[in-house]
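Reagents: none. Just compute today. MFS transporter.
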Amino acid sequence: MNQHSPVGDGDALAKRNSVVLACAQALGGASPSIVISLGGIVGSQLVTDQTFATVPVSLMQLGIAVGVIPAAMLMRRFGRRNGYLLGALVGATAASVAAAGASTRLFWLFCLGTFACGLYGAFVQSYRFAAADAATEAFRPRAISWVMIGGIAAGVIGPQSVYWTRDLTPAAPFAASFLAQACLALVAMLMILQLRAPPVAKVASGGGRPLGEIMRQPKFIASVTAALVAYGLMSFVMTAAPLAMVGCGHSVGDAALGIQWHVLAMFGPSFFTGRLIARFGKAQVTATGLILTALAAIVGLSGLSVAHFWIALVILGVGWNFGFIGATALVTDCYRPEERVKVQAANDFLVFGSVAIASFSSGGLLHAGGWTSVNWLVFPPVAVALVMVAWQAFQKPAVPA
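Predicted 3D structure written out:
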């Protein structure tokens, strides 16, 4: 940590909260990696039409999109910590329902569980904003990065939970993995109890500028476009990857380890992403992430070996990290303190709504056109997002004072 940086004593609370939230991220972030690793595989065992195999994963993404606004409203009324405790309880219940669906071979019950896992994910996704709430402008990108570092542990905890528990219930394949997921959510509650975030500002409904005015800002348009492309394409490719690997004759273990390496690549760069943003700029780091996403598709098109899948997933993960953290940092420049709750919720609703759409379309496209089609469709959205980010970079900065 740079001792000569302007982030000093004034960021003591932000630093403490960032560490606490990173620990919570390590546990809560394991939930989606378990659903992503197993959702399509379990789904394929429960339905005859394989077009619907990835619906459980897509429903998790839909749950995140549906949950972000209610989660924001709850935290605005009751505070971050109480909201996160409720979210973790929802997560434990959701994983238990998913386990019951896998055990009873009821596709609708399994889908209900994964959808509710997405509701938990809506709370987890806002950890990055909670860290930024108490931070100075100089420390804000690093606070976001610190929280995202928790995803490194999540990238190990989630897939390893699958690896070690997948065969514990032979009569109900993978049910034990979802029970392990429920336990992780309960342990996350112990971390959340240590949170000392400042209370969310209680302002009158509609406080600050109208949401439409904020959303018309060039920086907001560009940052949300970049975030939804970075996250949407990552979800689009990642959802299809485990099924594509199994379809190419690779093992479930190879697929789970591929997701593990992918998740590690998603969060590993967070050790230095904040510093890269401080040195090179938010738009530049975001654009680099988008370019890496396109590179991952090029690798995916070049072969079908385990190595090709894993390398593509690793590059995709790094691209997501740069693109999503950079775009998140851009969003924090677009609102005043009294506007943060509604703007954060609007941002996440747009981002995770697009992620849900991408995830829903992934399984059908994989079934219809194969892994090649999935990768070819990466390039047009990346091109659009790069143009938007470049456009924003040449705008005069407008600080919401």
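The two ends are 29 Å apart (CA to CA).
Action item: order primers for follow-up constructs.
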